[in-house]
Design goal:
Length: 226
Amino acid sequence: MREHVTKVRHSGQWQRPLNQVLWLLLLGWLTACGASKVNYHNGKYHSARDMARIKADARRRGTSRPTVKSKVKTSTAAGKTKIIARRPTGRPVPASVSGKVASVIETARSYQGTPYKYGGTTRLGMDCSGLLYESFAAIEVEIPRSSNEQAVWGAPIRAQDLQPGDLVFFGASPGSSTITHVGMVTEASPESVQFIHSSSSLGVIENALESDYYLSRFIRAVRPRL
């Protein structure tokens, strides 16, 4: 009888850690599934480019839904944590904007909150020219990789003639004529011009062109050849 009790206890010692392992594996699987639903639509997984196309089609049909503002935490090189406010990615693009340009803008906005990384082209990090390179790839248009090359990829236009989809270029300091940064116009009206870009300090974000900081560094603008 004692021998039988010993065997039962021995088996129980193995059963408890086994149950714990199975529970941890199940918890990890559920967590991963929850995180992967970001790019799910109607029960199917889609890439960022496909999601941009889906949103653009929904917007044209008038069925798109604006997302809620959120905040994203990211770490700086110094190890400090900062919070970046993200604007809704479901904001409507004017009906006058072509389908191709709308898809490019939707793709760029899907990267909002992505941290800056020199040479990067993924959601783990991307630079300013990389953001545009990936956004235009959504409509299968390959553009130059660097901001200097992108500055001559299109027809020069005046600042007062800017439209959504146009590219805007900046220098590192006020009055500079050397291009070091690029963004893409997302909204344009007589009151304001908004552009999306990958800021070295804030990551992918939208800003107003007429702000003193960017207006003083503005160099030129071009309209892409589509």
